[in-house]
Amino acid sequence: MMNAPLKHPLLPLLLLALCAARSTAFVPLMTRHLQQTTTFMTIVSPFDESGESASEDTAVATKPNSIGEGPFDLTWENVEMVLDEMRPYLIQDGGNVIIQEIDGPVVRLELQGACGTCPSSTQTMKMGLERGLKEKIPEIQEVIQAMPEGPPLNEEQVNVILDGVRPFLQVAGGSIECNRLEGVDGLQPAIYLEMKGSSASLNSVKLEIAQRLQKHFMMAGLRVEWIGD
């Protein structure tokens, strides 16, 4: 079934403007290869799932700042040491990671910068950092992503984000309002938004607005719902 044609000639420009105005570029870490520009050496990211190995005749897979095979004891210093081995790949993508807490066999990490707001942050944590830590420190049972504390969830803070997109919507003859908030103190809070005008039919614009709200509040389980959908 084909989508209905856009009703306003400025809607394509609206979407481009919204995407261009984002302050952080979301670059998935899971599929990126970081390669040296030498003939005989290739650096393979620990976040690469391809499983490809370098040819013995042309390259040798390695890692920067190699710390050895382990295993190591579960201590703050050893977790930092293993993370230091993986940090160059995060920094390459504009991010970083810090230890927030070690509670028995559970390590709680906080992704920072572009990594903290990337849609692939859960994959980065589980398939990259957790896998790398467990390989070197077998005592670790689980690695949990710690979310930094964001602003309180209220209509005033919702409008902080909506005010940033309203000028783009108005260009296309549209508008957006916060209809209500639900479950603010619960495990799955929800923001209900109502968009009017031609842009209301663009799911890509709604997705962009939802991502901005989730990035702003940094709340696990936060849902963005649309009146009329």
From TrEMBL:
It comes from Seminavis robusta. One of its GO terms (molecular function) is structural molecule activity. This is NifU-like protein 3, chloroplastic. Residues 1-25 form the signal peptide. One of its GO terms (biological process) is iron-sulfur cluster assembly. Belongs to the NifU family. The lineage of its organism: Eukaryota, Sar, Stramenopiles, Ochrophyta, Bacillariophyta. One of its GO terms (cellular component) is plastid. InterPro entries: FSCA_dom_sf, NIF_FeS_clus_asmbl_NifU_C. It comes from the Eukaryota. Residues 79-144 form the NIF system FeS cluster assembly NifU C-terminal domain. Gene3D superfamilies: Fe-S cluster assembly (FSCA) (3.30.300.130). Keywords: Signal. The keyword Signal applies.
